[in-house]
Amino acid sequence: MSDFKLGVVEWACPLPGPGGLKILSELGLQGMELDFGEYEAGYPLYNERVQDLYLENGVKYGIEFPAIGLNALNTHGMCHDRDSVDGMIAIQTIEKGIETAIKMNIPVAQLPSFDNGFIRTEKHFYNVCEKLKLACELSEGTDLIIAFENVLDAEQTKEMIREVNCPRVKVFYDTQNYHLFSGLNEAETLRSIHEDVAMIHIKDGYNNAISSALLGHGDAKFFDTAKVIRDTKCTDWLFLENFYATLPIRNIHKDFYEIMRKDIEIARNTFDIAA
Q1: Three-state SS for 10?
Q2: With contact defined as beta carbons under 8 Å apart, do 106 and 67 qualify?
Q3: 177, 216, 240, 260: least surrounded by Cβ within 10 Å?
Q4: Banded model confidence at residue 77, pLDDT cuts 50, 70, 90
Q5: CA distance 12 to 210
Q6: Please, what are the domains in the chain?
Q7: Burial of 209 (0-12, 13-18, 19+ CB in 10 A)
């Protein structure tokens, strides 16, 4: 029996939302990481009716929700000062996102730092730490894991964990981002911090394009990282995060789900996950 479960992130699904869970079930996936939604859209998943529909369809189709991504933090980054517009929206995103995770019994909240949230300075670093501490305070008394996702190197990652100083703070790892955005060796970085990892996004790409190649077909040396994942057993959950409906990967097949099926097959063979 495999040590791993296989899911997909909602934002990589050609048909996001609760209506797409039937197809994921038919493909044999076990879970989906939910997208909390953007501030500009009113955080759709904050709506109780929407939450209920996800939960009902999850039970109906046998799809678990092990994590929720607060991706609005890429638009309004945690790196910004708390009294700036972006900083205030980041705080609101965390407050409502943590509330939603707890209400839906989702065990891991993923707090990313990309796009408008990249950590580029020491001040950015400590602003992010401040907001991670807030997430810990808001979830005090629960078992909710607060998993930050960024491309800090191993030493900086450990420093962030020490600074936040909460036993529930972990890393949401990614098999391409460190290579793509920081030029780091993915496998070496993961081996250095594997004890602090909660869950992992698995994807690949080439020519400096994110999520643009089937697993193992890009330049991120996916199979080297996969070996570390197998060796360390640092997570239970692996989430596909290739963008199947976007160029160039969508050119592989007219049916985007057939492209996803190819990645599922690669992941199953790589991690010995039964169909």
Answers
A1: helix
A2: yes
A3: 216
A4: very high
A5: 12
A6: 5-271 (3.20.20.150)
A7: middle
Q: Which two tokens stand for residue 32?
A: 């989906």
Q: What pLDDT does residue 240 have?
A: 99
What type of residue is 82? R
Q: CA-to-CA distance for 190 and 261, rounded, in angstroms?
A: 26
Among residues 88, 85, 100, the alpha carbon closest in space to that of 35 is found at 100
CA distances from 38 to 51, 95, 207 (A): 15, 14, 28
CB 235 within 8 A of CB 198: yes
Which amino acid appears at position 259 of this protein? Answer: I
Question: In the numeric block, which tokens belong to residue 58?
Answer: 């999850």
Please give the sequence-ordered ranges of beta strands (E in DSSP) within the chain, or none if there are none: 5-9, 31-35, 67-69, 108-112, 145-149, 169-174, 197-202, 237-240
CA 241 to chain centre: 8
Per-residue pLDDT at 1: 59
pTM metric for this prediction: 0.97
Interatomic CA distance for residues 159 and 110, integer angstroms: 18
Q: Are 29 and 8 in contact (CB under 8 A)?
A: yes
**What token pair was written down for 190?**
């993961």
Query: Strand 145-149 and strand 67-69: pairing?
Result: unpaired
Q: Is the confidence at residue 195, as pLDDT, over 70?
A: yes
Enter the DSSP assignment of 2. -
Q: What are phi and psi of 29, to 5 degrees?
A: -75, 155
What pLDDT, in 10s, does the model give residues 125-183?
999 999 999 999 999 999 999 999 999 999 999 999 999 999 999 999 999 999 999 99
